[in-house]
Structure formats: structure tokens, C-alpha cells
Design a protein that fits this description.
The structure is a homodimer of 203-residue chains.
Chain A (H helix, E strand, L loop, with lengths): L2 H16 L7 H8 L3 H8 L2 H21 L6 H18 L1 H9 L8 H20 L7 H24 L4 H20 L3 H15 L1
Chain lengths: 203, 203
């Protein structure tokens, strides 16, 4: 990869993380990277492409952090994954909030694809951590719901910050167990899964 | 309101509900409404404005449907509200899926605001149905999570359709109860709320 391009993306990500995208200009990114405006245009053509590149980079960073293998059973790994997720949310606060509240200009649907890709990879990671091969419909809906809950909780936390972050993370783990209990009434396989998960969290 | 404009919006909503926005042209909308291309431009200036107007109309329609007073206690009202929500999802399938997967062109963030407005009104309706005055942080996060779950379940159902819709709706009501149980460990007020809700569903 081109190193100059990477530096521009890093500068853009830093700015898009701390400000609304409308308030970040190509000139800001150039100044922050110690580059010329012309160089930014050379690599990215415009702000939309730069935003998409920064978002891809953020998504890759989040994925790398979540993939770090935690200690313990699946629910402990879920818990430590949540801590890393909320670290990421906090570091990219303005950009995360703006993106998930609706996001800036998006012609080609690329932004939606990136966001959707993050959700799908989170889902696959959780399915893998839980040792599930092929989730049935009730479990799939449940885990997708939980991923959406985590995203929503991230937004809510940035807006209100009226709970301790650690308590919010515990609430989300409790939500996972609660959601799996609800799903177990619809799919006996989830009941078996719950039995394997719950001893693990008490060990 | 201008009746011709309303007819164009209705035609646009019908098309945007059944097709991806990229596949709907101004000419399609004009033809479907028996209007000229010039008239569409006269009222809306372009496809983006027409899309936003159609989306606002869909959001108002969804809200009107959800506000219909159901019978019974809060959980029964939740259940009948879910049926009306999924009717709406089904009738606007392509548009709903495209919008929530990331959505089409959106310069001003209006689309995000409309989607966010729907979520906020759903949240307020549920808070009201449950007879809660001012939800604390744990309850607020829980109810927002549930609204996100419903949206996600709507998307999942359009993609897979491998559960009965009625069963998916029951799963979501079970999720609400399960999520409130999880929240009750974080806020004693939610425990009291649960006690008032659960007798109601068995009556």
C-alpha cells in the first residue's frame, strides 16, 4: 500500500472521528497530514471518497480489535469484546454517532455496505465464539438483535453518558443471556446452547 | 395540501416500496401518476427530494398505524402493534430493506433524521403504553435496544422468511419481557414495572 495515502486516511479518520463530516474539509485533512490539497484530490478525488476510505479503515480497525482473543468462556469473551467495542466508540465518538444516526452523503450505498459488513462480521464472530455451526432462524434473529442493541447502546451512551460504561457493558451481557432465554422457547437447540454457556460464566 | 403533489408522493412511495431507489426514475413516477416529467420537477426539483417526501409520507403512515389503540394490557398492545409494523414492512419491502441497509443518496442527513424520528416516536409510544413517566437510563437503553431489535428482525425477515411471521412477532414480545428482566437487575424501578406488565399478559 502507498504510505502517503495511508497517512491521509489516518488524518481523515482522526478528523471524521471527532467532528461531524459536514464540518471536515479537504483542506482540514491536508493541513492535518502536512500535505497539499492537490495531493488529497490526487488520491481520493473528493470528500466522499475520502470519507469512505476513512470509514473502511475504521471498520478494519474495529474488526482487528474485536478479533483479539479474550480469556475465558464465550460470555467472558463477549464481555471483553464489549469493552473493546466501547473503547472504539469512545475514540470515534462524533463519527460513530453521525454515521449511525443516518450518515453523510452516500451515492453508491458504499457506506451502508461497510456498516452492514461490520454487523455481519460481529455476528459471525459471536456465532463462532459460541461454538455454533449453523444458527437456526430464532438464534440468527436473536444474535442480530443483540448486535443492533450494542450499536444502539453505543449511540445512547454517547448521547446521555448517564450510566457507568462498565454497568452498561454488564447490562448488554445480561441482555444476551436474556435474549437467548427468550429464543430457547422457540428453538430447543438454543436451550442446549444456553446450558453450555451458563456454566462457563460461573466457572 | 396540494392534491397533485400528494398523488405524486403516493406514486413515488408505491414505486420506492417495491424497487430499489436506484431503479426508480422520475419518468417512472410521472408515468405511474399520469403526470408529466415537468410536473414532478416542478414540485420536487429532483429524485432526492421526491425520495425524502415519499419517506416522510411512509413514516407518517407507519406512525398512524402504530397509534391505533390495540386491546388489552401493554404487552398485548405491543403484540398487536408488532403485527401492524410487520404489515407495513411487508407492504414496503424493497424500500424498507434498502433504507435500513444503508440507504440511497442523502446529502443533508434528512433521511437519517426521518429514520431516527420514527425510532424516537416508537420509543415514546412504548413508554406511554407501559405507563412509565420518565424512564431511567437502564430502561431507556433497554427500550431503544428493543426498537432496534424489531427493525433488525424486519430486515432479517425480508431477507430469509424462514420463520412464520406470527412466531417472529411472538419472539419479539418474548424478547421485550426478557430484556426488561435483564434491566430489572440494574434498576429496581424496572422490577416494579415488570410486575405490573406480567399479570396483564396472563389476564
Amino acid at each position: 500500500m502507498d504510505r502517503r495515502r495511508e497517512e491521509l486516511i489516518a488524518a481523515a479518520l482522526e478528523l471524521f472521528s471527532r467532528h461531524d463530516a459536514e464540518d471536515v474539509s479537504i483542506d482540514d485533512v491536508a493541513a492535518s497530514a502536512g500535505a497539499s490539497r492537490a495531493l488529497v484530490y490526487h488520491y481520493f478525488g473528493g470528500k466522499q471518497e475520502l470519507y469512505v476510505a476513512a470509514l473502511r479503515s475504521a471498520a478494519a480497525e474495529l474488526q482487528a480489535r474485536l478479533q483479539t482473543q479474550g480469556e475465558g468462556g464465550p460470555l467472558e469473551q463477549l464481555s471483553s469484546g464489549l469493552t473493546r467495542y466501547f473503547d472504539f466508540v469512545e475514540e470515534h465518538a462524533a463519527g460513530f454517532a453521525a454515521l449511525l444516526r443516518g450518515g453523510p452523503a452516500n451515492r453508491a450505498g458504499e457506506i451502508g455496505e461497510i456498516v452492514d459488513g461490520v454487523r455481519q462480521r460481529m455476528l459471525r464472530m459471536i456465532v463462532h465464539q459460541m461454538g455454533v455451526d449453523a444458527p437456526g432462524p430464532a438464534l440468527r434473529v436473536t444474535l442480530r438483535s443483540w448486535v443492533a442493541s450494542v450499536e444502539t447502546a453505543g449511540l445512547d451512551w454517547l448521547e446521555h453518558r448517564d450510566m457507568e460504561r462498565a454497568e452498561l457493558e454488564r447490562l448488554l451481557v445480561d441482555q444476551m443471556v436474556a435474549l437467548l432465554r427468550a429464543a430457547s422457547g422457540h428453538d430447543p437447540g438454543v436451550r442446549v446452547l444456553l446450558e453450555t454457556l451458563l456454566p462457563a460464566v460461573n466457572s
